[in-house]
Specification:
The structure holds 2 protein chains of 2 kinds.
Chain A lengths: L2 H33 L4 H11 L3 H7 L5 H10 L7 H14 L6 H17 L9 H22 L4 H29 L12 H10 L3 H8 L5 H9 L8 H19 L4 H15 L2 H7 L1 H22 L5
Helix pairs in contact in A: 1-2, 1-4, 1-5, 1-7, 1-8, 1-9, 5-6, 6-7, 8-9, 8-11, 8-12, 8-15, 12-13, 13-15
Chain B lengths: L12 H8 L3 H18 L3 E2 L8 E2 L3 E8 L1 H25 L4 H4 L5 H5 L21 E3 L1 E6 L2 E6 L8 H14 L1 H6 L8 H10 L12 E4 L8 H11 L2 E3 L4 E4 L2 E6 L2 E4 L2 E4 L3 H4 L15 H6 L4 E3 L10 H4 L2 H9 L6 E2 L3 E2 L3 H9 L4 E5 L9 E2 L5 H13 L4 E5 L5 E6 L2 E10 L1 E5 L2 E4 L4 E4 L15 E7 L3
Parallel strand pairs in B: 3-24, 6-14, 7-8, 7-12, 12-13
Antiparallel strand pairs in B: 1-2, 4-21, 5-6, 9-10, 10-11, 15-18, 16-17, 16-18, 19-20, 20-23, 21-22, 23-24
Classes of the chains: A mainly alpha, B alpha+beta.
């Protein structure tokens, strides 16, 4: 497989995952803005912070109004992280790697792009936002479904998986990082339960309220949420799950190509650490420091994959 | 569809019977679906200088063009003869130049031609094939009467439309294909792969590795490039994926550099190698011409083939066919006036309003004058151009082109068409796919069928024997 193609697959799926994550984040933020107008502005700021867009937003807008934030995150072409910009990048990459995709995956991506371009041609009124966000998630689910249902499980498939799970891990870690002060078990808060709305945003942004309740009942504690999002190996958006998928895909490439790469060693290390991690130790080390460390390792791993598999040259 | 006596022409009988039994509203609906189908599969072409939002669809007409098996046999024999002659001409012109010595083609025509590559003199391409893929543009003027408009021996495009038009018709009107026996076109990608593989260079070891070279996703024909690579199971590469490694052209893969044996390039000669041609080109591969000359890679079509479809040379095609095949040409050439000749120029100037004038190096319907359809001012403007640079132009009479029906809101209506059959040439055989790309002028009376000028396409059926 061409290095360029491997890189195109990796980035195509990173972008697809990112657009879905942004839709989820927006959904969570919108829910808070609706139910708690007093804290809406703070909540929007934290959504933008998670999406890494605070600076870009503030350069254009002064206040955190729902309408402006929604427009900025969904359809502003000047915002490289808006859903429309990201989907365009995903589709450009899909065009680049057209020969490595099945017809169904290509068509799902292209149709998704056409649908979103029409959907986001005009500002989305607040009353239509939930529908619009659900369409964005659905379009991504179609691409994912076509990918899993039709693609050969060869190196190309594993590059799509690497893109998906590297991005997802990054996203979950960012949500935790932005919300970490909520989860810090300070002396004052030990034993007290978290603010209902705030923990809900965290879980909602990873679409896991039900799963969490199913596992933990009504025991809503900082340690439980952190453990769920970092260490729970059955939770498909947890760091541990993502690390396991990345480790497996790089393991496949190592076996297939018969070459041991640095990226494979790094990914294995990250996975092992999460596999054996204890939430108590993480809080002892400091949640923020722990997440920062993870984000740093994740981005070095991304750069290493790029070098090992010759995405650029 | 109608013959001279206003009755339905024989090849259309079956289709017409089906059509008469259909509800026009249903066909109208299907036509709408076809557009959605093309958009979904991304069958678009980019328009230069516009935003990516302007990926356009080529209009598609749902009424097929039907050609009888007998007509097709005659046509394909003529094409085969012509393509063989072109290939022999190219070999000759880059070696002993017998045809010039014999005085059948004037020396100046080659010597002063930009499409002639001195770098190719004395070079032997693998299997002696120059024109691996040719798309001959043909028009029909009457029963069994065909004229060649252009030979397109450089990098003919449009084959993806031929294949997708058929695919679309199969999806929309499957019942037609069980009623009417139609020759298949879907074997083209397999034949292309086989044909290119059969031209592998001597340094090829094992199964030939084939790749398609594209200028990139912003090229207007990118869809076709990726489509062909996909259908052949070949890699789609850009210049920056390639470099010279150990005397071969190699592509950068996830596991290092791998040698390519056959490169189906969709990049023009002058961009192919910055060391040998345009030094500013970012699209090509530095040193590829040296590898080519040493037998390290097959380039399809071979560099320098453009000389064969130069419009100034076109008028010599009857001589070229006779010189190399020893036979009379089976297909007609359109009568062509060379404006470089003072007498012929005078004739052209005197009859400008009745003629089609073309630029010698032009393509895509740009830089031409269609006399009968042009305004007085346009004709006068062209007159000035002709007097200024006569050698830059040729002129042809407009032919009494036959028409085929298209589907309009008011029912069937006649439009002018041309046909581009696709020819594959390898050392052991010539394959011509049964059919080709039919391009159709979408407005009434128009003779311009180019997609860049608003023309559309339709499926082409060659009936089984």
């Amino acid at each position: 497989m061409l290095g360029k193609t491997a890189g195109g697959l990796f980035w195509m799926f990173r972008y697809l995952e990112r657009s879905e994550n942004n839709a989820r984040l927006l959904d969570a933020g919108f829910r808070i803005a609706l139910t708690r107008s007093a804290s809406a502005s703070e909540e929007w700021k934290s959504v933008l912070k998670t999406a890494g867009s605070v600076t870009d937003y503030e350069a254009l807008h002064g206040t955190y109004e729902s309408k402006k934030v929604i427009d900025f995150l969904l359809r502003d072409l000047a915002n490289p992280s808006s859903v429309i910009s990201i989907m365009k990048a995903a589709r450009d990459n899909a065009r680049l790697v057209r020969t490595a995709l099945t017809r169904e995956v290509w068509e799902a991506t292209n149709e998704g792009w056409i649908t979103l371009k029409e959907l986001l041609d005009q500002p989305v009124p607040e009353k239509d936002l939930p529908d619009a966000l659900s369409i964005i998630r659905k379009q991504n689910a179609l691409v994912r479904g076509a990918t899993h249902g039709t693609m050969l499980r060869n190196d190309g498939f594993h590059f799509t998986q690497l893109g998906t799970f590297m991005e997802r891990a990054d996203n979950t870690a960012r949500i935790l990082d932005v919300k970490y002060y909520l989860l810090l078990p300070s002396i004052a808060k030990i034993g007290s339960s978290l603010d209902n709305v705030q923990w809900e945003t965290i879980l909602r942004s990873v679409s896991a309220q039900r799963a969490y309740r199913w596992l933990n009942g009504d025991q809503i504690s900082p340690a439980n949420i952190a453990e769920f999002l970092i260490l729970h190996r059955q939770m498909p958006r947890s760091l541990a799950y993502c690390a396991q998928q990345v480790d497996e895909s790089l393991g496949f490439l190592q076996e297939e190509y018969g070459v041991e790469h640095e990226s494979c060693r790094l990914a294995n290390m990250v996975h092992q650490k999460l596999k054996t991690g204890q939430i108590g130790e993480i809080f002892e080390e400091g949640l923020h420091e722990y997440i920062e460390g993870f984000l740093f390792n994740n981005s070095s791993l991304g750069a290493q994959i790029e070098r090992d598999y010759r995405f650029q040259g | 569809m109608l013959g001279e006596t206003e009755s339905v022409r024989e090849p259309y009988l079956d289709y017409n019977e089906w059509f008469q039994g259909e509800d026009p509203a249903r066909i109208q609906r299907k036509a709408g679906q076809a557009e959605a189908f093309f958009r979904k599969t991304g069958i678009t072409f980019n328009v230069y200088g516009t935003d990516e939002a302007d990926e356009r669809l080529i209009p598609f007409d749902v009424v097929p063009r039907v050609i009888s098996a007998r007509e097709w046999r005659k046509l394909s024999r003529g094409i085969e003869q012509r393509v063989s002659a072109l290939n022999a001409f190219l070999h000759d012109i880059y070696h002993r130049q017998e045809i010039l010595r014999a005085g059948r083609v004037p020396f100046e025509l080659i010597a002063n031609n930009e499409a002639f590559l001195p770098q190719m003199v004395g070079v032997d391409p693998p299997g002696d094939i120059y024109t691996h893929i040719v798309g001959t543009d043909i028009v029909r003027t009457g029963p069994d009467e065909f004229f060649v408009l252009e030979d397109n021996a450089r990098t003919p495009s449009g084959v993806s439309y031929m294949l997708e038009n058929r695919e679309t018709m199969l999806q929309m009107f499957p019942e037609l294909f069980s009623r009417i026996p139609i020759q298949q076109v879907s074997n083209y990608p397999t034949n292309l792969r086989r044909s290119l593989g059969a031209c592998a260079p001597t340094k090829c070891e094992g199964k030939p590795v084939v790749a398609v070279l594209t200028p990139g996703i912003h090229n207007s024909a990118y869809f076709e490039h990726s489509f062909l690579a996909d259908q052949m199971g070949a890699e789609l590469v850009e210049g920056h994926d390639l470099r010279v490694v150990d005397g071969r052209i190699a592509m950068r893969t996830t596991q290092g550099y791998t040698a390519i044996d056959v490169l189906y390039r969709r990049v023009d000669d002058e961009y192919l190698d910055p060391l040998n041609f345009n030094p500013d080109s970012m699209l090509g591969v530095p040193g590829i011409m040296d590898v080519f000359r040493s037998g390290g890679i097959t380039i399809a079509n071979a560099p320098g083939t453009g000389i064969a479809d130069d419009k100034a040379l076109y008028s010599y095609m009857p001589e070229i066919v006779e010189f190399y095949t020893g036979e009379k040409p089976l297909l007609n050439n359109v009568e062509t006036f060379r404006c470089s000749d003072p007498q012929q120029l005078q004739y052209v100037l005197d009859n400008l309003a009745a003629l089609v004038v073309k630029e010698v190096h032009g393509s895509g319907g740009y830089g031409m004058l269609v006399g009968p359809a042009a305004s007085k001012a346009e004709v006068e403007e062209f007159r000035k151009k002709l007097i200024e640079r006569p050698t830059n132009y040729i002129a042809q009479p407009t032919l009494a082109l036959s028409t085929v029906p298209i589907f309009t809101e008011k029912g069937l209506a006649p439009r002018h068409v041309d046909l581009r059959p696709f020819v594959l040439m390898s050392p052991d055989r010539i394959d011509i796919t049964a059919g080709g790309l039919t391009r159709v002028a979408m407005s009434e009376g128009s003779l311009v069928v180019n997609s860049s000028q608003g023309g559309g396409t339709k499926d082409t059926w060659v009936l089984e024997e």
